[in-house]
Amino acid sequence: MFEKIDVDKLFKKFRKQKVLIIGDVMIDSYLWGRVDRISPEAPVPVLSNIHVEKRLGGAANVALNIKAMGAVPILCSVIGDDDRGNEFIELMNYQNLTDIGIIIDKKRVTTRKTRVISGNQHLLRLDEEQDDPITGVSQAKVIEFAQNMLSEGQIDSIIFQDYDKGAITPKIINEVVKLANQKKVPVLVDPKKRNFLLYENISLFKPNFKELNQGLKAEIDKHDMESIANAMENLRKSRKHEMVMVTLSELGIMINEKNKYHHISAEIRDIADVSGAGDSVISLASLCLGVGLSPREIAALSNLAGGQVCERAGVVPVDRLQLMQEFRVFLKEME
User: Does the residue 243 lie in any domain?
Assistant: First the structure.
């Protein structure tokens, strides 16, 4: 059973949180259009009536999710000294996000993912990116920024949003986690393959099912909950994490802590696009952890957040009022 939770008070507590987000950022560009015919030149659809839209993506979408909950996000990343970098800063300013943690590196290019969409049908994605590790100079700037934020004593949690694009390096992981642990600030990680086993002493480690298999070089069946739970527990112990939480898409979410695990089933939804669901999950998890919710409560609310954004096309942040209502309904059903 869940503890008695006052949803209004809980979400008011979220507003007092300040979250430092370190990770790979990008521009999510969308070419929305309509397909009425197949090209006579090749068996491919022809997109017409095109509308272009640009949004903040990657770790920047985590910042938008934190902001959507009324909390304060501080984003730290590295972008290029290019036109896309300028566009990224403009998008941040438009969303009223501070850019004090954005480092400009003339040796980098700013990542852009362009999705071609007809209605809710995803036709194609074009990635323009550079995924080698950022320079030593940029790494030092990221670490210094994190140290300054932690020294001010106002950071409630840190999120590593890792997309394997090079903004997060072993040195940054080691130094920032060490600083955070000294200040007793919880650290959450949304990992990818490259750095998967480099994270240690993490408060909450959140891979999705595919990333869990890749990171552990395992071949676990998605419906084998016992094997998933065992893999999570082995990972938690070997890397000295406090909690491991794995998203299982249509099968929900699982979280463990000290040999216990909880499985929360997914809600029935009309899925339009799964892009950005992980961003919403880690965002809500950080706020839940910051206000002291139990592992099961963290998983339940994070699961609702991730499911909600799948109902809308493109990468979008969670809707605060809808999430509050869904959580009330969930808690009522659990009584």
Answer: yes
Q: For residue 201, what are the domain limits?
A: 7-334
Any idea which residues carry the catalytic annotation? 279
Number of helices (H), then strands (E), in the chain: 10, 13
CATH number at residue 114: 3.40.1190.20
Please report which helix (H) or strand (E) contains residue 244, including its range.
Answer: strand 243-247
Give residue 59's Cα distance to chain centre. 6
Residue 63 CA, chain-centre distance (Å), reads: 9
* 112-118 β-sheet, strand order: 45-58, 25-38, 112-118, 121-128
Give tens-digit pLDDT for 131-171.
999 999 999 999 999 999 999 878 999 999 999 999 999 99
Crossing angle for the helix pair 225-238 and 209-216, to the nearest 10 degrees? 60
pTM here is 0.92
Residue 252 CA from chain centroid, whole number: 16
Is 1 contained in some domain? no
Q: How many domains does the chain have?
A: 1
Residues 226, 228, 229, 233, Cα dihedral to 10°:
140
Positive or negative CA dihedral for 166, 91, 279, 147? positive
Q: Is residue 2 part of a domain?
A: no
